[in-house]
Specification:
DNA Excision Repair, Uvrb, Chain A; four-stranded antiparallel β-sheet; 6 helices; single chain; 25% strand; elongated; alpha+beta; four-stranded mixed β-sheet; Immunoglobulin-like
C-alpha cells in the first residue's frame, strides 16, 4: 500500500515536469517514464482486506476485548449499568462512546491501555428513551444510564434473561409438588459437587428402603 502511494506521487511529478518541458528529447524521456509508471501502478495487486482491517485496528489502538462482567440496578426513571474499567477516567471524552436505540445500546471504549472494549445489549426488557439516555465516566467505571419510557419496575435487564429465568422456574414449578421437588433434586444433582451427589444418593436409597418396608406411602 505504501509502495503504491510512492508510485502515484512519482507519476504526479512526472506529469508536472511534462507541462514544463520544451525540449523534444526531454519530453520523450518523461513520456517513457510516464508510461512505465502507469503500467507499474496498473499491475499493483489490490490491497488485501486483512491489511485494511489491520489498519483500522491500529487506528483504534490495539485489539478489541468484549466486556462480559457488569452490575445493574434501577430507579423509577432509569436502569443503570455499571462497567468496571481501570483507568477509564483518564481517557479523552470522545474515546467512550455509547449508541442507544429504543431496545438496545452498545458501548465502545477506545484505546484504554492499548485495547478497545465493547459491550452490546440487544432486546432490552422494555423500551428506553434514546434522547434521555446517557453515560457517565467515573473513577475506574463507566455508568450507562438508560432512561425508561415508562416508570415501571424491570424484573430483568433483557428479554433473553427473562426467558431463561422463566424456563428455569418452569423446570421445577409444576402443579404436582412431588414432581416439582423431583425436578429440583435432579437439577441440584446435575449442578452439584461430589458431596451433594453423595448426600442425594444416600437420601434416595434410604427413601426406597422405607418404601419397601411400608414405612411411608409409595406415592410420596
Amino acid at each position: 500500500l505504501v509502495f503504491l502511494k510512492q508510485l502515484q506521487k512519482d507519476l504526479e511529478e512526472v506529469k508536472e515536469l511534462l507541462t514544463k518541458a520544451t525540449r523534444k528529447r526531454v519530453r520523450d524521456v518523461l513520456m517513457t517514464e510516464k508510461h512505465k509508471l502507469e503500467l507499474e501502478i496498473k499491475n499493483q495487486p489490490p490491497p488485501k482486506l486483512k491489511d485494511v482491517a489491520d489498519e483500522e485496528k491500529l487506528s483504534l489502538g490495539g485489539y478489541t476485548v468484549k466486556i462480559n462482567n457488569y452490575g445493574w440496578d434501577q430507579s423509577d426513571k432509569f436502569v443503570k449499568i455499571y462497567i468496571s474499567l481501570n483507568g477509564v477516567q483518564k481517557l479523552p471524552s470522545e474515546n467512550v462512546q455509547v449508541n442507544f436505540t429504543e431496545r438496545s445500546f452498545d458501548l465502545l471504549v477506545k484505546n484504554l491501555n492499548g485495547k478497545n472494549y465493547t459491550m452490546t445489549f440487544n432486546n432490552l426488557m422494555k423500551p428506553i428513551s434514546v434522547e434521555g439516555s446517557s453515560r457517565k465516566v467515573k473513577t475506574d467505571m463507566v455508568l450507562v444510564m438508560c432512561r425508561k419510557k415508562r416508570e415501571e419496575k424491570w424484573d430483568c435487564l433483557t428479554q433473553v434473561e427473562k426467558e431463561s429465568k422463566e424456563k428455569e422456574k418452569a423446570s421445577y414449578d409444576t402443579s404436582d409438588p412431588s414432581e416439582g421437588l423431583m425436578n429440583l433434586l435432579k437439577k441440584m444433582y446435575a449442578e452439584g459437587d461430589d458431596e451433594i451427589k453423595r448426600t442425594i444418593n444416600k437420601a434416595w436409597v434410604e427413601s426406597r428402603e422405607k418404601q419397601s418396608k411400608g414405612d411411608i406411602p409409595m406415592d410420596i
